[in-house]
Structure formats: structure tokens, C-alpha cells
Amino acid sequence: MPLMRRLLLMLMGLLLAVSIGWSSVHRPEQVTILMPAPFVDATADQVKRFNAENNGRIALNVIRGPRDTESISDLAISSLLLGTPPFDALLVDVTWLPKYVAADWLQPLDPWFDSDDIESLVAGAQLGNNVDGALYRWPFGADVGLLYWRKDLMPEPPQTAEELVQIAQNLRAEGRVKEGFVWQGRQYEGLSCNFVEFLSAFGGTWLDPETGQPTFDSEAARLTAHWMQQLITQGTSPLAVSNYSEPETLQAFKSGDAALMRNWPYAWAELQSESSAVKGRVGVSTMVAQPGASPAATLGSWGFSLLRGSPHQQATAEAIRALTSPDAQRDRFLRQGYTPTHAALFHDPELLEASPVLPQLEEALSIAEPRPITPLYAQMSDLLQRQLSGLLTEKRDPDQAMDQLQGATLTLLRSAGGVS
Amino acid sequence: MAMVFGWPMLRYSWLSMHASSVLTGLEPVSNQGANWIRLLEDARFWQDAVQTLRFAALSVGLEIVLALAMALLLDQSWRGRGVVRALSLLPWALPTTMMALGWRWIFNTPYGPLEQMAQSAGLSPLNLLSNPDWTWLATVIADVWKTTPFITLLLLAGLQTIPDDLYSAFRLEGGKTRQALTAITLPLLTPYILIGILFRTAQAAGVFDLIQVLTGGGPAGSTESIAQYAYLNAMRFLDFGYSATVMLAGFVLLSLVIFTAAVLLQISGLLRPLKS
Description:
The complex is a heterodimer. By secondary structure, chain A is of the alpha/beta class. Helix content of chain A is 46%, strand content 14%. In chain A, the strands form 4 sheets. In chain A, strands 1, 2, 3, 4, 7 and 13 form a 6-stranded mixed beta sheet that branches. A 4-stranded mixed beta sheet of chain A has the order 9-10-8-11, with helices on both faces. In chain A, helix 8 packs across helix 16 (398-415). The longest helix of chain A is centred in the first third of the chain and has 25 residues, at 2-26. By secondary structure, chain B is mainly α. Chain B has a single domain (30-275), classed as MetI-like (MetI-like fold, Orthogonal Bundle), CATH 1.10.3720. Chain B has a two-stranded antiparallel ribbon. The chains are: A alpha/beta, B mainly alpha. At the A-B interface, helix 3, helix 9 and helix 15 of A face helix 12 of B.
């Protein structure tokens, strides 16, 4: 029965081919996203839901990156440099975006997110996502700098830089609190974030919005430098703030040792926890500003970016949309306290009931100030941090420090062709 | 050797003659030695070089002295020595980043144990991590704490190769115990001390994680090491051409230091026991 056998073999071969073909057609599209560890935990349920809803069509996998911002940047950059990274999208910090775009690593998201989507975002979340007019990032959560104040020590938060100093010094003189104002003065990115807010308090900006030139030679920059140094020399802030990052700052305020604190929204939940010595006695406001100047809240925040060359762009965009949907944001706000980006959620009764500071967050987001949007940002910020750290710890002359900083920033931009 | 050392060195040399940054789209573009001219004029690099060298010199120096004392102690036989030997290795076994975080907490003002002690002694806050003149000593303390056990182990091994007969003979001839240290122990231990110095100097000159975590290079850039500067240029600024230049220059400086030390040692004759 050679004929029968041959037919049988052919039939089996056909079956095999069909089943392989079938399974490859119906094999779900694999989408992989790299995130810092805390965000992986915060999105775990939403990822599960997305995979259930898209069962057999898209399989979303999340790579658990390190917790620390700089470590995840190292990991992302290393894998991007090697060519084909094992992920389709990643969460990027707001300051990395221009650098990544200049390195040609990202794919614009414009085809998937239109102007209606953007307009549904709260003001602060609309910033820092575009480079050269293209949308390269879709925000995961909103994040801005806030001023925390002690309700039991003052009736109202300070409004001006002078008021802040006065309140802090009076409280210390009366012996009602150990330290006045704590903030992030360690030589690292946080110091630049604080500076943006202090500078705005005196009416200045880092780069001239018209010309893109640094403005450290401005009167506002000089006043800011003097003010920051005096915060320490006149005892408004302890010298120790010159080595404080966020955790140390929060520790000082949470233990009841400080009257005022500059920090991010995440601190609120910590201050309301059982271990907090100031639970129920904390108010949230925005950074002070001198009369005539407008206060600013430095824009932080992470967002999803799509990698150029990802073979699953459509599916990845769908995943990004699902992970940032209003429902997902409501979930994350109620469970982990991540500030939402959708404007409507700030007026949602359920959310307002969960957190009485939502209106203050919205207000801070309306004055959000991005750090300079340039591929050379990391260098510029590094120059600033070193000078400011010298100002705070070495009693370096503020005017001289600002002059040097102006010169160094100009040299950097010139050598890079950034200033004509 | 060619794979793990030769090829990277060649690649770095080549890269140091090119601009390769976000401004070139990460493509290497030849720039006729502009990186090296920039390096010569870069005050920050030279400041980092001085900082790296003084950090290495002081921490290795302190480590050798402390390790020698500990090794001599652990070489004697006494009750509980085994436990202490094992315990003394603990700092060395800890991951550097973890122990650096620990030290950052110890030095924390005002909540760290060090400040608490200063406070109860009636001193004003030390602010050891906020002083551009002194903070580098904090990095030395942390490094000494972490790596002294390594040299102790090395010297302890060395001590056990010295035959007891030598000491017995020395005593028979009327030598005093204290003299045995300079007459027998130290001369015979010299090769081990030199190996310890060599290992640790090479390591300390490339210090990165300890400083990155403990001070982040601050305050005012006073504790930044060459390795950190190279890392910043590559991983933060995406300026690979200049990063390669900084790395190579650091390597050349370190080689010069070690070469000079080797020549001085050769002349002094301290290496002789190694050869016999």
C-alpha cells in the first residue's frame, strides 16, 4: 500500500503545516515594556486586566527595572546602545526625553494620541512630552514640586520668599520647632529642581524663553543665589540640607523637626501614615514667589515612550493607552497615591474624598515649570548642581558663582552649537 | 588578555580621537585630538585626578597599617579567635552600595549615630557630608572599613607561611619578642604587604560605587573620582568620545604612579624577598 502510505504522509504533513500556520497567526503579539520596580507593582493589576481583555491577541509583559532613577537610566541606555533592546516601550523621566530623541531612539506617538487626548490632560501633564513639535511621551502620572507647611505652627503658608524666611526664623527663635525650612540641597538632580522653583520666586528662568540663552547673569539669578545661601547662613535651613535628598528631607519634616518642606506629591501619603509625627497637621501649598513674580512648581513625572524599530507599534500604543486610561489612574491614585493626569479626575467626588489635597495638586500643576528641554540638559544641570553645592557648603560668593555658571553654560552650549 | 584588555584599550584609544555624542547622533566623527586638548584644559578632570589619588593613597595607607595590626592579633592563638576571624571578614563581604548607604545614614545630620554621639558630647553638628574640605575623609573612612578585612586576610596568610622555628631560634639567640617583629615578621611579610598595596591601589584608583552612593561626588564636586567623571560623560551626557578620553587619561596616570612606585621599590631593594 505505498500509495496509501504516501497519502497518509502527505495528509500528516498538511495537518502539521496548517497547525503551525494557525498557531503563528493566532499567537498573541508580544509587547514588552521596561519600568522602574515601583511602577511595575503599581500597574500589576492593570497589566493583568489588559492581558485578559486582549487574550490571544496581545500579550503584555513588563520588565522589572531597578528602583533608582539613575540605575534605570543606565539600564535603558545600555540596552539601547547595544542596538535591539528587548522591549518595545519604556518609562522615561521628563528630563531624558530630548536626549533620547537626539539619539534617535524614540518613535513619535502622534498617530495614536490626538489633540483631544492631550486636551483631556491636566495642564502640568501636557508639558514635557514634545520635542520639536512631535509627541514622544505619554505621561504615566503627574508630578510637581510642592511646599508642605505645618498647620499647627502657622495659620497660612508663606506667600513670598521674605515671609518664608520670617516665619521659619520666628518659629525657631520661639523654640517651637528645631528647623525652619527643609529642601533638597545635595549635589544631585533634586537641587536643580529646587533651584527652578526658587529662581521663579524671584522672577527668573534658567534659559531665556525667547533666545534659549542661559540667564544666570540676571538680577533674578543673583537674588536667588544670595537667598539660597542666606537660607543656610541665617539659619532658616540647617547646613545639613546641603546633603539632603528627598528621603532625608521627608524624615526631618515627618518627625516634626521642621516647619516647612519642599517635596513631591508622594510625601503626602507618608505624612498621613501612622508613623508620622505630624499626621493631620500638614497643609500643601506651592512654592513662594516675590510680589510681581509668579510661583513655579518644577515638573517631574515619568511617561511612556515608544522605541523606534519596535515591530509591535500598534499593540504597544494600545497597551500604553490602557495603562494610562482614566480608570487605571483612578485605581493608582486610590491605591498607591499616584497623582492622575486626566483633568476630569481632579473633580471626581470619590477621589476628592480620598484625598483633600487634590485641589492643591491641581493648582500646583497649573504652574508647572519644565526644566530646559535640550539634549544637553544633563550637562547643564550638572554644572548648576556643582556651583550651587559650592554656594551652600563653601560660602562661595553668590555673584561670582552665577558669573562662573553663566560662562560655563555658555561654553557648553557654544561648543555644542546651541547658541550662535 | 587580547580580548579583555587589548581590544577595549584599542577601541578606547580610537574613540578618544572622535566626537561621539548626541550632537553627532552617536556616530563617531573624527575630531583630530580635540578631546585631548579639552582634557588638558579641563580643570575638573585634574581636580578629580588629585581627589582620586589622595583618596587611594590615604585609604590604602590606613588599610595596610590597620590590617597589619589586625593580622598580628588574629595570628596569635586565643579563645574565640575563630569567631572573630570570621566576623572581621563581614564588612568585606557586604555589597559596596549597601555599605555606602549605611555610612550615608551613619553620617546623616542630625539623625545619624555619629551626630547623635557628637550631640550628647555637647558638640555642634559635624555636617561631615557638607564640607568640601573634609567630606573626602568620610569616603576614606567608609573605604577603610570595607576593605581592611581583605588585606588582613592576605597578611594573615602571609604570617602563617613564616615558620615558628625562626622565632624559636631567635629567642634561643637571646632576641626579644618585640625585636622579632622588625627582624623576622616584617621583612618576611613585605611581599604580602606589597601585593596588598598593589591590589588595593588599583581598586581604589577606580573607585566608583562607594562615592556615587555616599556623596554623589559632592559637595561642590569635591569627592568626584575619575571613574565617576567618565561614567557621567558616557551614561548621563552620552558623550562617549570624551568619556573614553577621561578613562584613558586616568589609566595613563595610574600606570605612571604604579610605574614610579615600582622603580622606587626596585631601587630600595624591598622586593628582594619576593625573588628568593
